[in-house]
Amino acid sequence: MASPTFLASPSWQRQLWVEADPEAVAVCVAERLHQALEQAVVLGLATGRTMEPVYAVLRQRLLGLAMPQRQALLRRWCSFNLDEYVGLGPDHPQSFAAFMQRQLAGPLQLEPGCLAIPDGLALDPDAEAHRYSAAVAAAGGIDLQLLGLGSNGHVGFNEPPCSEAEPCRCLSLSLATRQQNAGAFGGDPAAVPARAITLGTAEILAARRLLLVVTGAAKAEILRRTLLEPPCPEVPASWLQRHPCLEVVVDRAAAAQLELS
Prior knowledge:
261 residues; alpha/beta; Rossmann fold; eight-stranded mixed sheet; three-stranded antiparallel sheet; 8 helices; 11 strands
């Protein structure tokens, strides 16, 4: 594992871990998630290509534990996913519920309900957003929130422009986001659902710890804007700068435009 470094910027002095490649990033992040599970914290989980190798390493770690130890740990599992497409249910292979079933819930045989996700088939998505936010609050809030970074600076599905105090809500997805996610829908952005339910920047910033994970050269410029430019609505992820317990794990390609001390 790499040693922590810091950005050469007086405005942002959080820990930054620069790993060699996405595989090393996955090991680093999975270790943090494993440690959090051992502490019986409430996790905030994310989906997407960046998270697939992370969850693969986490699965391997957990399935490698002795049965009594693994069962004791998994009985304490409590997590909330960031978002879900409106109109897709858990039986749809491109839903985030199905993604989490494939990545974690199925292989680990998690009990129903311990891995929570918004209901994409809810008749009233706005009411579902309120219900989901209330469920997070009832659990005591999120202790460790895992985050990816969208190509347009979104976190969760908080599309720009976005203030730092937006609540959990149903919103329309931008063309940039639908293009970014089109790979899971046969390469057709029009096939990507137009709306989603997402935890807001309010719930994300209320988490006790944030863990932002970014890989690949394509994210280098938006990562630079996220961490080094003043926070602004046009880059929703930039509000993370204001969190007192933000940790960032990236690979060398994603860190290419950061000035490191």
